[in-house]
Specification:
The protein is an alpha+beta fold and about 160 residues long. The protein is built from 2 helices and 12 strands, in the order E-E-H-E-H-E-E-E-E-E-E-E-E-E. It has helices at about 20-45, 65-70, and strands at about 5, 15-20, 60-65, 75-80, 80-90, 95-100, 110, 115-120, 125, 130-135, 145-150, 155-160. It has a 6-stranded antiparallel sheet. The longest helix has 28 residues, at about 20-45.
């Protein structure tokens, strides 16, 4: 007997299913499930989840007497999800820029002896206005506003905000 029959009437085409069709259907759906089980995790890995990032209009970067400003003359702070470099350019003067190099998104630092913002990845250099002056960076750093908020008792607080 070459067919599986659900009824006694061989003239009904819906009720007759050959074994070969059943096995072919099973193999095809198993192969499809295998491909889907491989592709789905890859696609989930390549597309990051949509997580709402906290929006920040301003962030405190510390006080004017912070040890980082005294020793290194700069400090990197988080502005939402983005790093921002705050540079002490004078006794009571501070500048802030995006701390992400415009070449390959490396984090920049400040070279006090050369008075410039420096990217160690490929030797990119920026002046204290944020302009790219050396190396491969294609565009300047994004500037941020810096406000000094005087405290009644103690040093002023540095607040960084978007331009």
């Amino acid at each position: 007997m070459n067919t599986l029959s659900t009824g006694n009437t061989p003239s009904n085409p819906v009720s007759t299913l050959s074994r070969r069709k059943l096995v072919n259907w099973f193999v095809a759906s198993s192969f499809g499930a295998l491909i889907l089980s491989i592709i789905y995790p890859v696609l989930r890995y390549l597309t990051p989840p949509r997580i709402a990032e906290p929006s920040a209009n301003e962030v405190e970067a510390g006080t004017t007497t912070d040890i980082d400003f005294r020793d290194k003359a700069f400090k990197i702070v988080r502005f939402g999800a983005d790093p921002v470099i705050v540079v002490r350019s004078g006794e009571e003067q501070f500048l802030a820029f995006s701390a992400t190099c415009t070449h390959l998104d490396c984090i920049v630092g400040f070279q006090k002896e050369h008075n410039r913002i420096w990217c160690n990845c490929h030797g990119g250099a920026y002046d204290l206005t944020g302009r790219n002056v050396a190396g491969p960076p294609p565009k300047p750093l994004t500037p941020y506003k810096v406000h000094l908020i005087e405290q009644p008792s103690g040093p002023a607080t540095i607040v960084v905000s978007k331009v």
